[in-house]
Each structure stands twice: as C-alpha cells, then as structure tokens.
Amino acid sequence: MEVYAYKDTLSGTTTQSWSKKYGTLLEYLGENGRSYLVYPEKTHVIQGRWQVIQTGRNAEICFNYIPSNKNSTIPKIDKNWNCHVALRYIGGLNEIREGDLLRLKRTNKLPQTLPSKVYVSIETAMKEVGYTAKLTRNKACTKKNKGCRP
Fold it and tell me: What angle do CA 24, 85, 115 make, to 5 degrees?
C-alpha cells in the first residue's frame, strides 16, 4: 500500500528541492512515469523516467535520466536507475504542487535560466520565466509537520 500512496502523492506534480551543492532543482513527475528536470543556470529540460518500488520494508523512488549533449556537464545522471528511500526523498522536497506549473512536459527549453545557488520557489520560477497558472496547495512535508506521511 505504501508504494501506491507515494505514487499518488507525486504523480502529476511539480516538485522543488534545494541543496547547497546545486541550488534549486525543479521537476515535473508525470502520471505516466515520465519526469522532466531543470537544473539551475540551464534552460534545457532533461527528460527521464520515475517509479516507486517496494524494497523490503521501505518504498523507494527511482529516477532514470539519460544525459543529452546539451546537459552533459550535469552530474549524477546516467543510464542507471538512481533510487532514494521514499520517506527521506519526500522529506527533502520543499514543494510538491499539483500540475505542470512550469510547462516542463510541453517544452524542451525554458524561456530563460534560473539562478544558481539561490533558493527559488515554484511561484518565483513561474514569474521568472513568465508563466501564469494557479499556484496549487503545497503537499510537501515541512518542518511544521515533521511526522507527515503520504
């Protein structure tokens, strides 16, 4: 049952995470198992796949991105599946919002790059690239809700 809950929580959403190493990562996770990722200071959208699998007592969220020539400098993206413990992965997301708010599924390139090493919310990213859509409720686990699960 846990696999279905994670898949239901993430399917059809735009997610936002941030790290000191890379900055803000924005990704759309399609209902069909396709994923679309944008790195800071890059305009090209990297297409891949995602899935949730059960591994013993834990569920894992796995990604598979094949590097393109345009994104060959982006680290840790290869032909293999890269998996994360689902609860830890979701806990690391700052935003999980319904819909393809940055139109990542429909394009292979954003109108402009997003800054590097800077925290950029989905709402700010939408404004930066000139997209307007209704900002949906944030479903991410936050520090205020430490015990949340999908």
Answer: 5
